[in-house]
Amino acid sequence: MTAVLEVTNVKKSFGGIKAVDGVSFDVQEGEILGLIGPNGCGKSTLFNCILGQLTPTDGEVKVDGKIVTGLRPSELNRLGVSRTFQLLQVFPKLSVRENLILAGQEHQGNMMSRLFGPSDAGLSAAADQMIGFFKLDHLATEAAGGLSYGQQKLLDAAMAFMGGPRLVLLDEPAGGVNLTMLGDLKERLAAINREKRATFVVIEHNMEFVMSLCTRVMVMAEGKLLAMGTPAEVRANPAVIEAYLGHCGIDP
Amino acid sequence: MTATGKYLRIALGIAVIAALIIVPMNFNRYGLYILSQWAVMTIAAMGLNLTLGYAGQVSLAQGAFVGIGAYAAAIMTTQGGMPLIAALGVAIVLCFAIGWILGYPALRVQHHYLAFVTLAFSTLAFLVFRNEDWLTKGIYGISNIPRPNVMGFATNRPLPFYYFCLGSLALVSLAMWWLIRSPWGRAFVALRENPVRALSLGIDTRRYTLMAFAIGSALGGVAGTLYAPLTQYIDPVPFNLSLSLDLLMMVIVGGSGFFFGPFLGAMIAVLLPEWLRFTQGYYLMLYAVAVMLLLIYSPTGILGILDRYLAERRTKAASALRAVAKSRLETAP
Fold this sequence. Notes:
The complex is a heterodimer of chains A (about 250) and B (about 325). Chain A is an alpha/beta fold.
């Protein structure tokens, strides 16, 4: 097994607040790592540091052994690192298919071929396949802004996979999604993980979702790494119960 | 429904093009001048529509680029004795390069802050046109700008020159249509709607922002190279800030981010004041009130009204379909 993502002692402060305070971990190929912790513990900030949206105050991020700290998000994306956002981030005026083509087009050819080549950058078939995979068939030509919240969440996730990424960071993919659709989403993510050997890091508050999908779970509290282990280990960890899960949390 | 819609649109397009070719044949000199001006301003507004409407970057400098193009054409064809096509090449390259540089502030500031930066550039360009006598002849202006020969046809008379402008507009429209439906066009829209998400999808927002400015400005230059032989005399006054504001208004009134917005916007800005001339002193007032009322009623411009109407019809049709499907489900055993 090789580490797809290695994070070493990453720190990020905003003024006097240490949002992320020396976090180190790695993610192996094909793994689904869950990242949980109370609100404001630095999960999203850590994501933004890894993905180049923020520059870490200190520390190092490696993807496939290559140092990527300080790269722009667009450069990182073209190295095969993709993400979804906590809040909805689809392009409302474009159709579902256009959203997906947009999500993949910068991985095809170069600037010149994108100007003079075909309008769909050769991605129509791939987009339709993704639409089928996420069961959005009847919505392909609808404007993304007209979809329900849950459908937009599915589209958001689908967009992250258009570039054929090696590593995908998902920020609360289950937030605000109804139960049926949540099952769909989980099953789809697991299938992509199996078939494409895509590696995931998932921030999520839905414990059932995290515990059943993830192979390993990492817990953050106050900017620091609190615990790391299999879902069962983390669930049984007294420090985690104290800081996050609570005593009468979920059924064992 | 969509098939008939498509044929209707094609028929309408052919009718409009035919009208633009045939109707002006018995126009007088002044009518043709106004119509040529419409074609030229449409090209400049299309450039701004790319920068502002599609890529979402505010610019108050489009008039300055029309000026740069016009001066390039005037200087090169009068003093240099060169053909207009050479001036066109120079204007495009020059405006593209300056537009690219003007795009850099857009990487740091947005919206009205960006508007102020471009406004400063507009003023700067005007000062250069007015004060650099050695190059632009300052307030005396440049006269006797020749009209070009296009493939052996002289365009000295108003009608051939109008056709020359119309042909140029057609070429620019085709190029713009291609650009908008290419992956670049999609990336420009992504830039406008959500630059953070665009960046996370591998879209080099920096390069596309600069491109949007550069291409939009280059089209301003193209319009300028047509403007100079149209009026045959240029001085700095037409290229002051009010031209940039006029062009901005054309884009917004027509419908910012709609392909045909600039055509309509330029028509209103160029033709409406002429049609309202019978009201004598009141025409500017009426014109201003009409524009205000329009923008209160529809902030997305004239094509925004049409777009809303069509979207409403689609939604109604879709919900009707859903209702039918639902009633079928309910009546099913």
